[in-house]
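Re: Re: ligand-bound prediction request (bumping)

Still looking for help on this. To restate: I need the protein modeled with copper (II) ion bound, output as structure tokens. Inputs repeated here so nobody has to scroll up.
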Amino acid sequence: MSTHPAAHHEPYHEPPHAAHLHDAAGHHDHPHASHGPAMHGPPADVLARYARAYADAQPAPGHAVVRVDLEAHEFDWEFVAGRATRAWGYNAQVPGPVIEARVGDVLEIHLVNSLSEPTTVHWHGLRVPAAMDGTDMAQHPIPPDGSFTYRFLLPDAGTFWYHPHSNETIQLEHGLYGALIVRGDDEPLVDGERVLILDDVTLNADGQIAAPAGWRERIEGREGDTLLVNGRSGPEIMLPAGHVERWRVVNASSARYVRLSLDGRTFRMLGTGGGLVEAPVSVTEVLLTPGDRVDVAVGPFAEGDVLPVESLPYDRGLGLKPTEPFATLRVGVEAPSRAHVHERLRDIPAIADGSVRPTRVVRFGERTHTERGLDFLINDEVHHRAEPVTVGSLQVWDVVNETTLDHPFHLHGFFFQVIERDDRSPAFRSWQDTVNVPAGARVRIAWIPDDRPGEWMYHCHILEHHEAGMMAHFVVVPAHEMVSSGA
Ligand SMILES: [Cu+2]
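Reply:
Sorry for the wait, this slipped through. Here it is.
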């Protein structure tokens, strides 16, 4: 057990909202045989940690502080053209504004909460200090009419996204999410760039977002019957013939897996959740779990081409679905191209190979419960309290899925490399914060905690599973505080 100084195991008072959420997840009766109750709230010195992180966030030489105002509120939005739906979102749009900055900039985001319930903003994939992670372990949720300023340095280029880490199965479902793009100095040269945020929603007979349909959706994860790209159903994408575009694709849906295809055409994968890959990978499809991102170069196409942007059948343990169309790509008149995608995008040094011994096993499990139907577990616990890790120490985790459903594993605040899937090395190296762990499979990941101590977490990114307990908290401790020394 860690003996680091933060008051992680002392009693604390949950805000009423958090207590309510944990009721829904059946939190009173879970067993914590050896770890004591997992804490669900920020550490006692949260304000000091926040003040330190705020002050430490200074732009690199020649870089700027990028300031963004976000307001979370309710408004009418046409997910389906001509049909007003009460949505929740940022700045009166679904998705929220695309936030853009450069590596070395500081991002300062002032959030005003005009919702009728508390919220937070989590910066998915960004290596921020623990106090800026936007979870209910990093801060007290922002109450209605409250506000909060997030401020942090941007160390990595890539396609990230932001969303609440409070009551997520409701808040994300209603439209609270947006993309965050961080650009590096040496990006592929393309003719155009688009952000495509994929989502799904179920609208009831009144055109409103349907209430969750009980235990079945909680077990399976909620998939809507209306597919959305950037908050709209069935959009058309126009592209000049001859052009090559970079598409930054985000899967913001609660539970839907997207096996992205462009009518079988070849496209080039440029990046994953943790930024560019080493070299473009030619593919005809790519799988995005909830929470995942991919950057692809599409085109060139010929004038008159009409291609469905669709999801191919995928079985995440619930049977195969039909091919599902998200959008239509229409190719117009030829235009000159200046696109140039290098053969080599960057170097990603391997931090471990498949022969290294795992330091930890993370087991996804499930257990029937008389009232709730099914609990989703990590190492036999809902809301597992995992052992601390030390800054700088190589982590090799075997993530083992002992259930009959796929689960996307998401690690907050740190990138990992997949080094093995069921005894096989991956075809190419990448940085990830989210990886699919198929039913019955084992995925070995490696990562090294850099110097950002504090409370962190990992969880299944199917939002209903996360809410139902498939998550774990752990502390990253500074290297000078040995995990078992008596501080
Ligand atoms: Cu799951």
